[in-house]
Amino acid sequence: MALGLGCTAKPGKAKENKTGSWRTFRPEFLHEKCTKCGLCSQVCPEGCIAEDGEGQPVPDYDYCKGCGLCAEECPSQAIEMKKEEK
Amino acid sequence: MTGESCGLFEYGHRACGGCAAAMAARTILDAAGKDTIVVSATGCMEVFSTPYPETAWKVPWIHSLFENNSAVASGIVASLKKQGRKEKVIALGGDGATFDIGILCLSGAFERGHDFVYICYDNEAYMNTGIQRSGATPYDASTTTSPAGKCSTGNRRPKKDLPMILAAHGAPYVATASIAYLPDLKKKVEKALATEGPCYLQVHAPCCTGWGFEGEKTMAIGKLAIETGLWVNYEMEEGKVTRVKKVVRKPVEAYLKEQRRFRHLFKPTRNEPEIAKIQAVADRNAERFGIDIKLKK
Amino acid sequence: MMEFMEGSHAVAHSVKHCRPEVIAAYPITPQTHIVEALAEMVANCQLDAEYITVESEFSALSACLGASAAGSRVYSATTSQGLALMFEVCFNCAGMRMPVVMSIVNRAMGAPLSIWNDQQDSISLRDSGWLQFYAEDNQEAADLHYLAYKVAEDRNVLLPAFVCFDGFILSHTYEPVDMLTQEQADSYLPRYTPVQRLDSADPISFGLFASPDYYMEFRYQIDQAVKGAAKKIASAGREFGEMFGRDYSDLVESYRLDDADCAIVAMGSICGTVKDAIDEMRKDGKKVGLLRLRSFRPFPEKEVRSALAGVNRVAVLDKNVSLGTKGAVALEVRDALYGQQVPVLDYIIALGGRDVRKKDIRAVVDMAGQGKGDLFYGLRQELVS
Questions:
Q1: What's the rounded Cα separation, in Å, for the pair B76 and B74?
Q2: Cβ–Cβ below 8 Å for A43 and B23
Q3: Which of C195, C205, C209 sits opposite A5 (nearest CB)?
Q4: Chain B residue at shortest CA distance from C64
Q5: CA C288/CA C365 separation, integer angstroms
Q6: Tens digit of each residue's pLDDT (9 = 90 or more) over C40-96
Q7: What's the CATH number of domain A19-83, 3.30.70.20, 3.40.50.2000, 3.20.20.60, 3.90.930.60?
Q8: pLDDT in tens, B119-152
Q9: Domain map of chain A by residue range?
Q10: ipTM above 0.90, yes or no
Q11: What angle do CA B132, B135, B141 make, to 5 degrees?
Q12: Distance from A41 to chain B by nearest Cα, in Å?
């Protein structure tokens, strides 16, 4: 692999660092309680909560660090943090 | 799932869980869009987002040094102008880069009037090097270089009023924001980018690691800063305060007692005189900006 | 076209002919005449450049770095304390492979404060990864700017370059200079096409940090690029010679060295005096020659070795000193001659503008003949004893 001239890099490789392995708590999304407000997706520092076709949040556990911000901020208490079992 | 939920700031970055700076970066890029060149100062955000060869930035991005992002941005703006290119330029820095080591370059760039937006993510200390005090550290905060101790109540000086310093340079738009109010932050970034000339945005970015709270509380802590009057969200246009976020104020201890950096004010015993001094800071802010919502009796 | 010009103005005109798109500079004696001249050209629409009047040298070079990253040809000029203030950015420009060209109007470093000439400023940046050229006279100072851009911007080089010339001695002295026309300059130096740039159409990140797994390889590549620049200097210098009659293909210049017993090694304007002194000494039957280094980075190791192969002793005139050891040029010449028996004697000379006359050169050669060297030449003993 040739080095990027002057320590440059193209985007696309950050994704290879799967930060999901950092997690000790895992957000569980309770779809029946979700009002599809989108706040969880907005506050996620990783940006790893997408929406499915119906507007339901879909977390990417490959990257979710389990910080719990989404659960804390969810106005409908529709996200529960559960201890990760590995 | 491999969605594009991350927008222009890719996941895989190494920020702490619950990092406000990462939230800020995402929101800023979301507001700015892809035709933006970002100049980062050395600091947490730079380090957690760009270990070679993994860059989280999907916009053109450059990091040179700790203290020169405004000067590098000046050069980029001049170059784009010469080339007739239309990209926007944002310089990003933490409070250490902005308030302290980079203020010479920042002042020069604002005085010269380059068309760019400077955004400071203000986590009120040098976090990248291990929580040392900066010119943005608030009064009495305990940091590793202003530790509370038997004869110290933490940082001895109040926070530098940098937005006013930059407004005094003639900046057409100066604003403060907080990661606790992301849509507001987004709107201010958009407004700053749409305003010609050097604009300054200072974003309160509570740091769970440096301030001592759980990562899930980042937004809540940010809200408390505003609700106690210790942080004021406002906008200044052409040197005049034009908009202020008003609140029904809570006593400052609601904010202080949630953070390890102020723990010495409550344990082993409550330090009433010091808490009163911090309350006075909030009271002065409230008076100066008129943030109090008067409840009808 | 031959013109009678001040050194600074000759350089400013060369720079103008190089068509820099962004100029960022901060005033400092004795560099000011260059940046004033360029500002005037911009003000009179003779030069179509963005001119940033920065608040410090630190910002001057930082702005150049940014503009270079965005894809522009850039220029700055400084000296002494200004260059020292740029120290951090200098390493950055080289590490980030930005082909910035900067004039260094050589001046002493404080303390004590001195506005006068020596070469301590640029020499102190020898480890930074910048190419370093030293001009003997104003003609060369003017010409080397074209060469510097041509070499710095080469795809196999991509490094920043100093064009160094002695403060006041050259910068403020009027000499006849054969100036290129804009057409000639354009035919030699094409418009700058960056290899990579900040561009939203193809976003890349510049200036990532490198872990121990990568850092050494990046530094190795810079080192290779500095060394490899010699090849481009040779071709670009030859091309200049073919086009305009002044050949800069060699990193060094030999003067009456062929049969010399004693070789003087020096850089910059002092070499004019040395050449005159050599001519006089030759008349007296003394076989003295000069090896002038035009390029200090890359260091012309091979050239030094071959040029000095036949001499009995080498006297290095160092307008700098690495305090606590010796002059930088002597150390490197000695290194180049490692394993050979020839003594290399160092003379720290002309610091802070102390004048050097032909008789001083003769004295140095006499001292070298006695094996006496590695000293500060011409100290006022009454002040230091």
A1: 5
A2: yes
A3: C195
A4: B75
A5: 8
A6: 999 999 999 999 999 999 999 999 999 999 999 999 999 999 999 999 999 999 999
A7: 3.30.70.20
A8: 999 999 999 999 999 999 999 999 999 999 999 9
A9: 19-83
A10: yes
A11: 55
A12: 8
